[in-house]
Fold this protein.
Amino acid sequence: MRRMTVRDVRLHWTEAEKALAQEGEIIVTRDGQPVARITPYRPPSQKTRRRFEPRANAVWLARFWRGKGKKTGPSTDQLLALDRAD
């Protein structure tokens, strides 16, 4: 772990980059107090997405909407017909 001031990091970035490669971490200080930590960039891991299964989705939708099927207002088709009639 290397300590560098904000000014040193700004003015001597190549030195800071080398120190980061060697030591793995730089503590940035201002007025002798640590204010930041610079670590090497690691790309986020790529998680594999599950394949979309229409049947499984239909089962999930049916289970989700069970008991919630009572409509209190006009359907979307009725609203579209009213809007187009104007």
Q: What stands out?
A: Helices lie at 6-11, 13-23, 54-65, 76-85. The mean pLDDT is 89. The longest strand covers residues 33-38.
